[in-house]
Each structure stands twice: as structure tokens, then as C-alpha cells.
Design goal:
By secondary structure, this protein is α/β, with parallel strands linked by helices. The chain is 37% helix and 16% strand. Strand 2 (38-41), helix 3 and strand 3 (72-75) form a beta-alpha-beta unit. The longest helix has 17 residues, at 51-67. The chain binds 4-methyl-5-hydroxyethylthiazole phosphate and magnesium ion.
Length: 207
């Protein structure tokens, strides 16, 4: 399957079991019904599954995405690319370098987090399909989160790279998503706004 990166970044749900107050499969299904355009399996942080349990949940969520033609990404864990037959992978600055991933997986979609000028300097953007920019707003969801960059960071990236696919992340919800898009991002990546919503379909429509 070949994907349109700009399009898939529009409403990008990220989640692992640690983010879910109820069955992750149900949350993903509702989110798909609501209209997400991509999913990233991010089993990470306090209470995250590991080993076989992680793979087992990953396989279930992967299958749901496949049945609904939603692109499935994994976070960081390049070993799971093949095991889960992911469509893509998202990595941070301290993970496996993007150029190495690109050589290993010429056909996968590769995303890279870029949160500062220093990170930009050390990044090979020619190896990636999109960048994640954030945290745009304050968030409780990630423990080792970097300083808030604001929508100004997205404006800066957009001015410097007119054609670079950008997804904003961090503290985004249906009240502030518009600012992220107006700053120049193709889309918004969200965790808690969706996983903690009591009306997931509406939340995603409102995004
Ligand atoms: N990377 C930067 S902020 C963040 C990640 C994974 C957490 C986003 O979670 P939320 O709940 O949408 O703020
Ligand atoms: Mg990482």
C-alpha cells in the first residue's frame, strides 16, 4: 500500500496500553470510526507492556488498522517493524539514526522528532518522510518531555522547509488544534485528548 504522507498526518493517534483507561482495541476502533488518519503504537513509560505481551497487543492493533486501511506506525522499536509488518516507524533524536533506518527500510514511512535548532542541525531530513514537532503545548503524558516549543517552532520549520511534512505533537486537543494547522503543520498527533475522551468520535471530528 502506498500512502500520502501529508494526508495521513492530519489526525494521527498515538497510544499504548499505558494511555488507555479501557480496552485499547475498543479505543482504537472508536478512533477509526471517528476519522483518524494514522495510528502509532507507542508502548512506553510507566506501566507499559514489554516482550510477548507488547507484541501480542501490537499484533491486535495492527490487524485492526489493516482491516480499516489505516497506516500503522511503531514508536522507536525497529525490531517490531518486521514482526508487526508496520507501514512506518517514528523515532526520536536518541534512537536509531534515520539514515540507517532509511537504508534498512527503503519503503517504510519514517518520522523523526525535531524539537530545537540543535536537533535540526544533527538531523538528516533527506532520510525522513515527515517530522514531529513538539511539545507544542504543555503535556503531562510524557515524563521525559522536552521544553514547550509553541506553534512558533512549527512556523519556523515551515518557513525554512516549505515542503516538509510536519505533524505537531504535545498537549493538542480540539480547542487548540487549529493554531497548529495555521502555523503550518499538516496535522496533529494526539494521545490523551483521544484516549481520555468519553466521546472519542466527537473529539476526533472536532479536531
Ligand atoms: N512527544 C512529545 S509530546 C508527547 C510525545 C509522545 C506526548 C503527547 O501526548 P498528549 O497527551 O497528546 O499531550
Ligand atoms: Mg524515542
Amino acid at each position: 500500500m502506498s500512502w500520502n504522507v501529508n494526508q495521513l498526518l492530519r489526525k494521527y493517534l498515538i497510544m499504548g496500553s499505558q494511555n488507555c483507561p479501557r480496552d485499547p482495541e475498543d479505543i482504537l476502533l472508536e478512533a477509526i470510526e471517528g476519522g483518524i488518519t494514522a495510528f502509532q503504537f507507542r508502548e512506553k513509560g510507566d506501566g507499559a507492556l514489554t516482550g510477548e505481551q507488547k507484541i501480542k497487543l501490537g499484533l491486535k492493533l495492527r490487524q485492526i488498522c489493516r482491516e480499516h486501511s489505516i497506516p500503522f506506525f511503531i514508536n522507536d522499536d525497529s525490531e517490531l517493524i518486521e514482526e508487526l509488518d508496520a507501514d512506518g516507524i517514528h523515532v526520536g533524536q536518541d534512537d536509531i539514526p534515520a539514515d540507517l533506518l532509511r537504508r534498512q527500510y527503503p519503503d517504510k514511512i519514517i518520522g523523526l522528532s525535531v524539537s530545537s535548532d540543535a536537533e535540526l542541525e544533527q538531523s538528516d531530513l533527506s532520510a525522513v518522510d515527515y517530522v514531529g514537532a513538539g511539545p507544542v503545548f504543555f503535556t503531562w503524558t510524557k515524563d521525559d518531555v522536552k521544553p514547550v516549543v509553541g506553534v512558533e517552532w512549527i512556523e519556523k520549520l515551515r518557513a525554512r522547509y516549505p515542503d516538509l511534512p510536519i505533524v505537531g505533537i504535545g498537549g493538542i486537543n480540539s480547542d487548540n488544534a487549529r493554531e497548529v494547522i495555521e502555523a503550518g503543520a499538516q496535522g496533529v498527533a494526539v494521545i490523551s485528548a483521544v484516549t481520555n475522551s468519553t466521546a472519542i468520535k466527537e473529539t476526533i471530528k472536532d479536531l
